[in-house]
Write a structure and sequence with these properties.
By secondary structure, this protein is of the alpha/beta class. The protein is built from 12 helices and 15 strands. The protein has a 6-stranded mixed sheet. The protein has a 5-stranded mixed sheet with strand order 12-11-13-14-15, with helices on both faces.
Length: 393
């Protein structure tokens, strides 16, 4: 197939729309549904991300994309009992026997609010366990290099049979130059084929220079995620998954604050107060996520035990005290952070420290690098200068 006509472009009034291959054929096959313009933007960026994670780390990978940035990404490591509950997959039989299912459960579990209506990419063949997770989540579609027969049948029943299922040729490699148009002007540049692996972590600049292999894995995961995240961007990662992605901010500190706030929410979802919330059995998964967000953030509404709680809970939720919140957040540690460009001020380190960051990978090159390094040493944070900027637009 050389060309595919789309229902419309970014918005319904932008018609006609299509995707096409200028040379050869498209590397994708639509197995079900009718993916849209934004779906394909998400799918093709997401595929590059999971493919590179697998190439670099040697583990199956998954990502949950929304509006051309990842809400989360992860590798296929087993989930603990608490993680299974927090990721809403504790009832999935044989979960830890499927690395690709674990990868997607973790990726969606990064930020379940942002993953509402996501587009999924998997580095490996989608199996039935992964399909069963996806079937009950609100999602627009999936791209993978293949599907088992059972997985495909499960996915075809989703969204009244209209769920978008795309298969990609995993051997496809585009030409070296890429182009796009803005206001009738064509931009051209070499594709960003920079390799992100352990070789980028050879330049420690802090007093602490030796870190664990797990920390290196998480820094690499964060950097690859940033390579396909709308800039400016900062990514927090831990235990083989992203835990907070701050994308598309004009200020570096705003990226760090956003990613840190998301990381805090990810960790608070694992607190006893959240795990024990008395949800009514009929409350749907997106509604649970919304109520948990209200409860954790103290934003008011039924999730905080105000008017209307009876529609969601068997009893009025007991608010989390500031002391409980602070004590739980203080237990978060071992977090890695990646930044797509240098930190211009040490305020980023101050904020990162508040969310348990102990390892940082960033390009370096700021006129205030000395201040940033001093802040890391103050908090016993190991930092590596990669020398590689990772802007993505």
């Amino acid at each position: 197939m050389k060309e595919l006509t789309l229902k419309y472009g970014c918005n319904p009034h932008q018609k006609p729309a299509r995707i096409y291959a200028e040379a050869g054929e498209l590397p994708i096959t639509v197995l079900n549904g009718q993916p849209g313009y934004i779906n394909f933007l998400d799918a093709l960026n997401a595929w590059q991300l999971v493919r590179e994670i697998k190439e670099s780390l040697g583990l199956p990978a998954a990502t949950s994309f929304k509006h051309v940035s990842p809400a989360g990404a992860a590798v296929g490591l087993p989930l603990s009992e608490i993680d299974q509950i927090a990721c809403a997959v504790d009832d999935i039989a044989g979960l830890n026997d499927s690395p690709v299912a674990c990868a997607y459960a973790r990726a969606r579990g990064t930020d379940r609010m942002s993953s509402f209506g996501d587009f999924i990419a998997l580095s490996d063949v989608c199996d039935a366990t992964t399909a069963r997770i996806i079937k009950r989540e609100v999602s627009d579609g999936i791209l993978a290099p293949g599907y088992t027969a059972e997985a495909l049948e499960i996915l075809k029943t989703k969204r009244n049979g209209n769920y978008a299922v795309i298969q990609i040729d995993e051997d496809y490699a585009p030409e070296g130059m890429e182009r796009k148009q803005v206001f009738g002007v064509t931009f051209e540049q070499p594709r960003n084929t920079a390799k992100i692996d352990h070789s980028l972590l050879q330049n420690p600049v802090t007093a602490i220079t030796e870190v664990s292999e797990a920390a290196k894995r998480d820094m690499i995961l964060a950097l690859i995620t940033l390579k396909y995240t709308q800039s400016n961007s900062v990514c927090f990662a831990a235990n083989g998954q992203t835990i907070g992605v701050g994308a598309g901010q004009q200020s570096r500190i705003h990226c760090t604050r956003l990613a840190g706030e998301k990381a805090d929410i990810w960790w608070l979802r694992r607190s006893a107060q959240v795990l024990d919330l008395p949800f009514l059995p009929e409350v749907k998964r997106p509604e649970r996520d919304n109520m948990i967000d209200q409860y954790i953030g103290s934003r008011g509404g039924p999730g905080c035990g105000e008017t209307g709680w009876e529609a969601y809970f068997s009893q009025k939720p007991v608010p989390m005290t500031q002391e409980q919140r602070a004590n739980h957040l203080a237990s978060l540690s071992g977090v890695s952070l990646g930044s797509d460009a240098f930190f211009p001020f040490d305020d980023n380190i101050e904020r990162a420290h508040q969310s348990g960051v102990q390892f940082i990978a960033q390009p370096g090159g700021s006129v205030r690098d000395v201040d940033v390094i001093a802040a890391c040493d103050r908090y016993k944070i190991a930092m590596f200068f990669t020398g590689m900027r990772l802007f993505h637009h």
